[in-house]
Design goal:
The protein has 9 helices and 4 strands; from the N terminus they run ααααααββββααα. It is mainly alpha-helical and 283 residues long. α1 (34-68) runs antiparallel to α3, α1 (34-68) runs parallel beside α6 and α3 runs parallel beside α4 (155-164).
Length: 283
């Protein structure tokens, strides 16, 4: 009788049926996990939003430069006067000077005419801030992506260069968020300098304090306000009780409670207060 050799290894057949090891999803399996899909979706949304903010800035920055350039006409240059027309007065009347002074003090407006218009400081500050910001952003993106130092270029050229690197920045959440936040900040600064009004979005539901349909989201502030002039809350710390120009505001941390008390949809409330380039560019 032959005895099996004890040193001979016993070969086991792979388990079948329910005992077989199921393939794992995620990295290395070729099948993206739910977390990977959500990350890719968030990156794509951030790239799209950053692209729209860059496009808005590319469209409005040249307008800012036009506003910066003062109109100039030499006082010694002869004025073209049509034949038979009465000669124009040598200068503005006292009433015109007073009216121009009031307009300049109230609105920063300067009268049109043949004299040299002073450079408006808020326009000059905005141009300098945006120019410096675009240069710093361009250099920061190249440094973070370990690219050579970018060559000198005008604002538009640098913005287009940053836009061309958005796909490469998609793998760096911190960098991508920084790009989007910076171009959004500069685009909004440009819009404000050009005299654009702050965007306002109507919010469904009724104000918990005055029960009127007067809730409005202000995306730039990330806040919801009641625009009813007669609305007064019971919070002793809120200035709406003493200042007629003040409106009660709900910051982002109070939106869940506001939705519950006003009957608004929390998802709609968050979407209304989102500061998006699509809404800003469509105004």
């Amino acid at each position: 009788m032959t005895t099996p050799n004890a040193s001979t290894p016993t070969t086991r057949e792979p388990a079948t049926g329910a005992r077989a090891t199921a393939p794992k999803h995620g990295r290395g399996s070729g099948t993206p996990s739910a977390a990977d899909t959500e990350t890719a979706r968030a990156a794509a949304a951030a790239i799209a939003d950053a692209t729209l903010w860059i496009e808005l800035l590319l469209r409005q920055f040249p307008e800012l430069l036009v506003e910066l350039a003062p109109s100039y006409r030499s006082p010694s240059a002869p004025r073209a006067t049509p034949a038979g027309a009465p000669s124009a007065p040598a200068g503005p009347t006292p009433a015109e000077r007073e009216e121009a002074l009031r307009a300049e003090q109230a609105h920063g407006l300067t009268p049109s005419g043949s004299r040299t218009s002073p450079v408006r400081l808020h326009i000059s500050d905005a141009v300098r801030d945006i120019t410096d910001g675009v240069i710093e952003l361009d250099e920061a993106v190249h440094d973070r992506l370990r690219l050579p130092r970018p060559r000198r270029e005008q604002v538009a050229g640098r913005l287009l260069r940053v836009a061309g690197l958005l796909d490469r920045a998609a793998g760096d959440d911190v960098l991508l968020e920084h790009i989007r936040d910076e171009v959004r900040r500069m685009a909004r600064r440009c819009t404000r300098a050009l005299g654009g009004a702050e965007p306002v979005v109507r919010v469904s539901g009724r104000c918990p304090w005055c029960d009127s349909v007067s809730l409005r989201a202000f995306p730039a502030r990330r806040a919801v306000l009641c625009v009813n002039p007669a609305c007064r809350c019971t919070d002793r710390a809120c200035d709406c009780r003493t200042d007629p120009a003040h409106r009660h505001a709900w910051s982002e941390g109070a939106w869940v409670r506001l939705a519950a008390e006003s009957g608004a949809d929390p998802a709609e409330l968050a979407a209304s207060a989102a500061d998006t380039a699509r809404r800003e560019g469509g105004r």
